[in-house]
Structures are given as C-alpha cells and as structure tokens.
Amino acid sequence: MARAHLFAPLAGVAFLLALAACSAEPVSSDTPTAAVTVVAAESDALPVDVPVAGEAPQFLDRGTPASLEMEKPAATAAFDFEDVRKLAAERAAKPYAAQPALMKDAAAMDYDAYRRIQNREDASLWATAADTFRVVPDPRGYLFTTEVKLNIIENGDVRPRSYMNEDFRFFDLPLEDDTKKTLGFAGFRVLTPLNVAGKFDELISFRGASFFRALGTGNLYGASARGLSIGTASPEGEKFPHFSEFWLVAPKPGDDAVSMFALLDGESATGAYEFRVSPGPETKVDVNAVVFPRTTLTSVGIAPLTSMYFFSPHDLRKNRDDFRPAVHDSEGLALHMANGEWVWRPLLNPNALQIAVLANQAPLAFGLVQRKRGFDDYADIESGYHDRPTIWVEPKSDWGEGYLTLVEIPTVNEYNDNIVAFWKPASPWQEGNAYSFSYTMSWGLAGSVLMDVATVSDTFAGLRPGSSQPMFIVDYEDIPAALLEGAKAEVSASSGEVQNVTLRYNPETGKVRLSFDLDPQNADVAELRALITRGGKPITETWLYRWWK
C-alpha cells in the first residue's frame, strides 16, 4: 500500500512533514509525553571553533581522515563534487531564499490524481539501446511542492535539463495551462535492467525533501533514507532541508554504476552530496557529503533511515482486528557495535513517543532490517511486505563522538512511517564550519554481512497463561549442538525482576529457544537484554527489548 514519509505532531513536538514518493494520511496526535532512555553514557562535547564576530565565515572542515574517505577521481577541469561543495559554501553564507508556493490547482491534486500524470517514453534521459541506465523526471504536484533543478554532465560539460510540459501526459486533470507549462520537477527516478534482462525497472528514486529510496533485485519499495535529518524528535521541531539541484553524470555504454551530485538547501543548512549507485541483488549506494550549517544545529542526524512498523508477533499488545500476522517494512534494528558485539533490537509501535540511544561510539554498521521473507509471515498479496528491502549502513569516515539513536512513534495504521534511526553527533554543529562524512548503504533482500554469532529468528511476547506477568520467547537460528553444551543464558532487566529463565533445543524447528518472565514490580519501563554465552563469550547476537506498562 502507498504510504508517505509523514510524522504527526506528538505531545507538542513537531515531527517530520516532508514527503517522499507515496501518499499521506494524518496520524493521531493525542499521544502522551515522550519516554527517553539513554542506554549509553553521554560523552563530553568536543570544542568547535567559531569565527570571530564581524569576519566572513571560514568553513572549517571538521574532518574526514583521508584514508577513510571515498575514492575521488583525479582533479580535472570537469564539473565534479568540489564544484557542488563551493556552491553549498557560498549559499550557506547568504540568507535562505524560499521558493514560491506551488500553484493552487497542482497542490489541490490528491494522490490518485497525481499518479495519473504519465511520463512520455521519449522524455527519458539516455533512452537509447546502448544505455544501461535511464532517468525519468517526476513533476511537482500534490504534496511534492519543492522544485528541483536537473543538469546533465557529459564529457565534463554541464547542460541544464529544463522542464517541458510536453514531457508529460496530463489527460483531463483540472490543471490550468499555465500550471502545466511552469510546473517544474519534483525529483526523478533512475531505471536499469534490475530484475530481467532488457526490462528497465526502478533502481532509485529522489523525491521530497532529501528523501531517497533504492531497490535491490526482487525488492519492492519500503524503508527509505534521507540526506540529513535536523531536529528529529526534538522539542524545537524538525527542519527539512531539501535537494534543490542535481547533476547527473551521463554513463558510458557498459557502465555498471551511475553517479550524481546534489545540492542540499534549507533554512538551517546547505550541503554538497555525491551518490554512486551500483545495482544488483544488493544495490550499493556510496554517499559522500559535506554540510554547512546556517545556524547552530544541536540535533543532527547522519545517515537517517526511515521506515514503518505497525505490528507483529513480538508485540505484547496484539492487533486482534487484522487478519495478517505482521505488518511492517522493517522488523528490527541490527547493529554491529564498535567493540564487535552484534545487537538485535525488535521495533515497536509504542503507546507514547519513545527515544532510545543504543550506542555512544560510532558503529561498524547498522541498519533497519526485514528478516522474515516468507509470504505467510505477512499474508498480504497487495503490499508484499516479504519483499521490502533491508537497508544496511557502513560508515566510511570518522563520524566522531555521538549516539546511535532510535525513534519510535505511535501509529494507528500502516500508511505513515513511524521509525527513524540515525547517528547523532555529540557536539552541536556550528555556523561557519563544514562537516564531512561518508558511508555505503546496501539495499536488498538478504543481509549484507555474515555474522560470527547465531541470529535471532523470532521474538514472541504475551502474558504467561493464568498470570498477568509478561512472558518473552526468543528463538535463535543455527546454533550447533556442540556449542550448546555448557552454554548459559544471560538475561537482565533495568527494572523489575527476570524469572523462569529456560534454554532448550526445539526438535520441531531445529532452533534454540530462550524463554523468561518479567515481574515488573513497580516499574513503568524496563530495558530487557538477553544473549547466550559459552565460556564467557557470546555465541548469539545480543537481544534488546523495551517493555512498558
């Protein structure tokens, strides 16, 4: 089902209103105050240089070690990332110039009307038989109000790709002729033969604020990413810088990747971005970026991921009215911590805004993961949740001190994204400085890494029969019988008391099952932690879960 990247105001906190490539519906806002748990200890803020009053801003790069940066081509006279960087720095030194409002008749379109606008086949970029990639521009309209400029880089030269209403079929939509002629672009999609030779399928889409979504072989669109988040789940409210201009590098015949540069702009910051997209069973997206704050930013999100989680069997409170066993784009957050520990945190649809900090050292990798891949796990023919992609992020530069943050927002349906995960720098970003970072994203059906410990296959939660105490069951995959000899289950809770811990092999499934009860006592919230060790070393990933009254 179509869905927007939309967060509603919760308990007086302004949330995400930027939209990507789907429809939108409002989310209920009568929600209690946010609950915040910091799992990792806070770090001291690092000092940041501030320009002397009256001096022109000097953008000080806060540092990506050369050995960790993405490979850059040798310097040439051709347009490249450094040109976009200069544009972003120049724009950051000037006041933000907001765009004129979208024409009323275009803004009045609903989702179905907007979807009726069709691209003419001959309007695609690079649409020749020898081309591996094609680009399909998207028009503005409905909720996509920001105009995006497109440019083509070919043989080092830049030429604009101007909007022309002849590129689209508007049919009998109630749009004025002047609106059609001046509508402009909202973004674009890149197509490539991703699934079947000779058939061009969508590979990546950029549309709405700084949102983008990619696909691996066999995927359907699900979780998404952003270039930057500012103020997510903060009392000050969220800001939404947008990609205002793109430069698409024309691929040569036989190229196995497509590249593009983007200019980020907004009231709070500007930025230069470089994307290299390599399609495959796991599509790789290499991101290289530098951001220039226009003001002090106290809540920044690097590599923010966004998804939807409605319900599943691991919820303590069940959705009894839905025929489907689970509804979500992502099932959990997986984390490879700096110390080598593997962590699995099932996602939740809380009854109040929840914010958790899962690490205070930059991780080796993290992602929003869809582990269950069977149709029967969701039983939804239309939505195809079993084919939604996992997104895995691996930092390629030093992200500095900060916190891996997970935000979970209540939702009453599956049409709005309510999950955000990102790296939050510990120190505020200051006006007049430049902040560089890079990372690689993997989008696909399978996990992009092989763990050296057993993974969690299932989590079940409910009440013990004849009792009001919550009971939890964690099933693990692939634990050799020899490792189970002398293995120990380590289960703890931040509040209350863990009881009836049992660890045993399940001959029916071939899995290992850990079960336990929680006596909450007088607690309102408890952070649960479990893993199986042998000889003091983990043989499973660490399972985390937040229980609340």
Give a summary of the structure in a few sentences.
The longest helix has 12 residues, at 81-92. The chain has helices at residues 81-92, 104-107, 111-116, 177-182, 481-484; strands at residues 35-38, 60-61, 118-119, 134-139, 149-154, 157-161, 168-169, 185-192, 201-207, 211-214, 224-226, 229-230, 242-249, 258-265, 269-278, 282-293, 300-307, 309-311, 327-328, 332-336, 342-346, 354-359, 365-369, 390-395, 402-408, 419-425, 433-444, 456-463, 470-476, 488-493, 497-506, 511-519, 525-534, 537-538, 542-548. The model is unreliable at 4-75 (pLDDT under 50).
Question: Key terms for this structure?
Answer:
549 residues; mainly beta; 16-stranded mixed beta sheet; 5 helices
Task: Characterise this structure.
By secondary structure, this protein is mainly beta. 6% of the residues lie in helices and 39% in strands. The chain has five helices and 35 strands. The chain has helices at 81-92, 104-107, 111-116, 177-182, 481-484, and strands at residues 35-38, 60-61, 118-119, 134-139, 149-154, 157-161, 168-169, 185-192, 201-207, 211-214, 224-226, 229-230, 242-249, 258-265, 269-278, 282-293, 300-307, 309-311, 327-328, 332-336, 342-346, 354-359, 365-369, 390-395, 402-408, 419-425, 433-444, 456-463, 470-476, 488-493, 497-506, 511-519, 525-534, 537-538, 542-548. It has a 16-stranded mixed beta sheet that branches. Strands 1, 4, 8, 9, 10, 11, 12, 17, 22, 25 and 26 form an eleven-stranded mixed beta sheet that branches. A hairpin with a 3-residue loop joins strand 9 and strand 10 (211-214). It is globular. Residues 4-75 have low confidence and may be disordered.
